[in-house]
């Protein structure tokens, strides 16, 4: 079962990505953020085992995104999303 904290963290990431995507700031990788938002959308739509598998992949996607764009996601969001790794 997916915890409500996991869903809230994914929803916050989605909201941030959507905000940046809509602003189209030149210094932001907004296409990459749009893709990350789409991954969040997919994950939130799935249920059961499909959602669990999507969350596991989303964790990897987030880690890759942060490695490639280390100063894009706010630190508080990275910390909250990092807690996803603790939830198994």
Would you write up a description of this structure?
By secondary structure, this protein is mainly alpha-helical. The protein has four helices and no strands. The chain has helices spanning 4-23, 30-45, 48-68, 75-82. Helix 2 runs antiparallel to helix 3 (48-68).
How are the elements arranged and paired?
Blueprint: H1 4-23, H2 30-45, H3 48-68, H4 75-82
The dominant shape is: globular
Q: How many strand units?
A: 0
Range of strand content: under 5%
What ranges have pLDDT less than 50 throughout 5 or more consecutive residues?
none
Radius of gyration, CA atoms, in whole angstroms: 12 Å
Give me the secondary-structure category: mainly alpha
End-to-end distance, in Å?
Answer: 11 Å
| Helix segment tally | 4
Helix content: over 70%
Order of helices and strands: HHHH
Mean pLDDT: 85
**How many strands, which pairing sense, and closed or not: the largest β-sheet?**
none
């Amino acid at each position: 079962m997916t915890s409500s904290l996991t869903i809230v963290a994914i929803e916050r990431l989605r909201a941030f990505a959507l905000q940046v995507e809509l602003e189209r700031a030149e210094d932001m990788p907004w296409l990459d953020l749009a893709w990350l938002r789409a991954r969040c959308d997919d994950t939130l739509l799935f249920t059961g085992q499909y959602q669990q598998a999507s969350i596991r992949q989303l964790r990897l996607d987030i880690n890759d995104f942060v490695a490639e764009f280390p100063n894009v996601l706010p630190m508080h969001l990275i910390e909250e999303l990092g807690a996803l790794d603790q939830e198994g």
